């Protein structure tokens, strides 16, 4: 493989990894901070892509970003409502919302399953025009993704160190203690889910506009990708402050996408990619355990039964 192909491979993985990092950061907020297992990620991601595509096609590419985030926020609010007011378990609430969002996404897309944006102005085409005469003219996708990730990381670093952010983190650690401290865990859970799903919607919006098309299956398997990236990021930069951990999530998203892109280059059939993603998740989950057990496993592998009897 030539150097040009390697650089192209790395750039593609970086662009997609940064866009997916927004979903990973959303999962970081609700899984690592709130300790909630929300499976509405796939549907919320598709909702953000659908709303962003429809608004961009109508001639408002910049408005598509807050619109997609607002749609994701509404999705998070419904999920929180099911959990906190109707007594539905977080796992089941995510499944219910994810199932309902499929019909809503089709309705947002006007009954179609595919939206073409080849002739539509998007935030990427505007950035391309803005950087036309600069050295970064060919890196407009990367610039947009970097700006979005930098803003979200900065927001999370600031937000999770505020009084409300600390209350959200405390809710994930010990909801009983939070309740005894006169903090309403219903409110903190709702805010956390709304903010995290807004980031998921933003991620879907940017991916749809980057690809110049949006189909109903764009978010399929996104929760698996985000979970794998989260676990990889936790392994790479899992300890430290919020900023360090958030940057670890971004690194995890890039590493996952790099492995995924390499797999594509080896001409792995499309139907095998879900298996590749599952294997990556399995390795990411088991790696800390295997690393902890490695000295004992090494002793067992190198132990010779006849040696002790001599």
Strand order of the largest sheet: 1-2
Query: Which oligomeric state applies?
Result: single chain
Helix/strand class: mainly alpha
The CATH first-level class comes to Mainly Alpha
Q: Output the radius of gyration.
A: 21 Å
Morphology call: globular
Work out the helix count. 13
The name CATH uses for the topology is ABC transporter involved in vitamin B12 uptake, BtuC
> What is the CA-CA span between the terminal residues?
54 Å
Question: Keywords for this structure?
Answer:
ABC transporter involved in vitamin B12 uptake, BtuC, globular, 76% helix, 310 residues, mainly alpha
How would you describe this protein?
The chain has 310 residues and is mostly helical. It has a single domain (3-302), classed as ABC transporter involved in vitamin B12 uptake, BtuC (Orthogonal Bundle). The chain is built from 13 helices and 2 strands. The chain has a two-stranded antiparallel sheet. Helix 1 (3-33) crosses helix 10 and helix 3 (61-84) runs antiparallel to helix 4. The protein is globular.
Short description:
This protein is mainly alpha-helical. About 75% of the residues lie in helices and about 0% in strands. It has a single domain (about 5-300), classed as ABC transporter involved in vitamin B12 uptake, BtuC.
């Amino acid at each position: 493989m030539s150097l040009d192909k390697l650089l192209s491979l790395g750039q593609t993985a970086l662009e997609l990894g940064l866009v997916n990092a927004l979903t990973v950061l959303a999962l970081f907020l609700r899984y690592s901070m709130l300790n909630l297992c929300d499976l509405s990620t796939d549907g919320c991601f598709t909702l953000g892509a659908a709303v962003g595509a429809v608004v961009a096609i109508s001639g408002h590419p910049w408005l598509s970003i807050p619109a997609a985030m607002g749609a994701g926020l509404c999705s998070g609010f419904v999920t929180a409502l099911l959990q906190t007011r109707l007594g539905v378990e977080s796992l089941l609430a995510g499944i219910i919302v994810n199932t309902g969002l499929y019909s809503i996404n089709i309705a947002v897309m006007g009954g179609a399953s595919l939206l073409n944006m080849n002739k539509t102005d998007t935030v990427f085409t505007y950035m391309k025009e803005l950087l036309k005469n600069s050295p970064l003219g060919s890196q407009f996708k990367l610039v947009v993704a970097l700006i979005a990730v930098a803003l979200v990381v900065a927001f999370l670093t600031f937000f999770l160190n505020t009084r409300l952010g600390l209350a959200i983190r405390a809710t994930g650690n010990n909801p009983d203690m939070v309740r005894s401290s006169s903090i309403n865990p219903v409110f903190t859970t709702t805010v956390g889910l709304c903010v995290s799903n807004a980031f998921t919607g933003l991620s879907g919006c940017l991916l749809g506009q980057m690809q110049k098309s949006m189909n109903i299956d764009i978010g399929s398997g996104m929760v698996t990708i985000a979970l794998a990236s989260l676990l990889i990021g936790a392994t790479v930069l899992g300890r430290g402050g919020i900023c360090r951990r958030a940057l670890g999530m971004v690194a995890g998203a890039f590493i996952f996408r790099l492995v995924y892109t390499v797999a594509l280059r080896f001409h792995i059939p499309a139907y095998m990619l879900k298996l590749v993603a599952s294997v990556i998740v399995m390795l990411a989950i088991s790696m800390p355990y295997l690393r902890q057990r490695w000295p004992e496993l090494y002793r067992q592998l190198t132990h010779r039964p006849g040696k002790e009897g001599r």
